[in-house]
Write a structure and sequence with these properties.
Blueprint (H helix, E strand, L loop, with lengths): L1 H53 L8 E2 L5 E2 L13 H14 L4 H8 L3 H13 L2
Helix pairs in contact: 2-3, 2-4, 3-4
């Protein structure tokens, strides 16, 4: 009887140690597989980046004015805005959306595309 009282805890400790080792090696295999997948993804992205670097930049077609003479490309309107205009615009959009205004009305009032209002609304819903 005394032998059983000694063997039962030893067997339980041995079983627990075997289970712990099994879980450890399983985790190690899964981590190794994850590392291989990540390395493969990084290699694929590196190849894509190299292909894009080697590709020549697309030439922009020349711009002509209504009179027919060449005019240099004008910078986009967003580039002429002062720094900090984008967060202010985003705040204005969100305030108007919370007030219940439709996106088309907000876009018209702020003189921006409706798609931009929709994008800000979607990003806000996602928490970004």
């Amino acid at each position: 009887m005394n032998v059983y009282l000694f063997l039962v805890p030893c067997l339980l400790v041995a079983a627990a140690a075997a289970a712990a080792l099994s879980l450890f090696f399983q985790l190690k295999r899964e981590l190794a597989a994850e590392v291989r997948d990540r390395e493969r993804a990084v290699a694929d992205l590196s190849r894509q980046i190299e292909r894009l670097r080697r590709r020549p930049a697309p030439a922009e077609p020349p711009r002509f004015s209504t009179a027919g003479e060449f005019s240099p490309a004008e910078p986009p309107a967003a580039a002429s805005r002062p720094d900090g205009a984008a967060p202010v615009r985003r705040t204005q959009i969100l305030i108007r959306l919370r007030a219940g205004e439709p996106p088309s009305q907000i876009a018209e009032a702020l003189q921006i595309p409706v798609e931009q209002v929709d994008l800000v609304a979607q990003l806000h819903q996602l928490g970004l």
